[in-house]
Amino acid sequence: MKRTIWKFGLYAGGVMSVLMLVSLPFEKVIGYDLALVVGYTSMVLAFLFIFFGVRSYRDAIGQGAIGFGRALAVGSLIAVVASVCYTATWEVIYYWIAPDFAARYEALEVNRVKTSGASQQEIDKRVDELKHFSELYKNPAVNIAYTLIEPLPVGLVIALVTAGVLRRRPADAADPSVGAAGTAMAAGSR
């Protein structure tokens, strides 16, 4: 189980990390909002390795069978490994490649709130929130926590869906035409 988790977790984490590094120079060109869409899309694509990892585990180690709980555990652990890779890559980027990220983000948000037509009181409140966030974000533990909660929920949702799709009882494993969706139909036709 460990080998499968590490292998597919590192594949997913590697894809997310490479795509983050490749898209970083284009953030200013495409804008922060589009960069966010590109980032989460790359996470979803990278987390497809959860499906392949759980299927590999089911076929090789489970001899064609896997329960929902075990599939969810394998998929979730793959998501954790991938998310840790993503977080480690961001920490390198934040502290060594783009240490001005928090200041750029703060300036972007301040500009956004000023152009929204908000009152001066609302603008001042948002500026104070952003300054507080910037101070918190300088703490590596807070930085890591914020970064980890970006990809992890996406990976856990994909692990949940994968567990539902790939679960297969030992009796169903003997008949490859019967999958998770076909189990109920096959049982009803007997």
Task: Explain what this protein looks like in three dimensions.
- The chain is mainly alpha-helical.
- It is 81% helix and 0% strand.
- It contains 11 helices and no strands.
- It has helices at residues 2-23, 27-30, 32-46, 48-61, 68-97, 101-115, 120-137, 140-148, 152-166, 170-173, 182-189.
- The protein is elongated.
- The two termini are 34 Å apart.
- The model is unreliable at 182-190 (pLDDT under 50).
What attributes characterize this protein structure?
11 helices, mainly alpha, disordered C terminus, about 190 residues
Count of DSSP-assigned helices: 11
Helix content: over 70%
End-to-end gap: 34 Å
Low confidence ranges: 182-190
**Strand composition percent:** under 5%
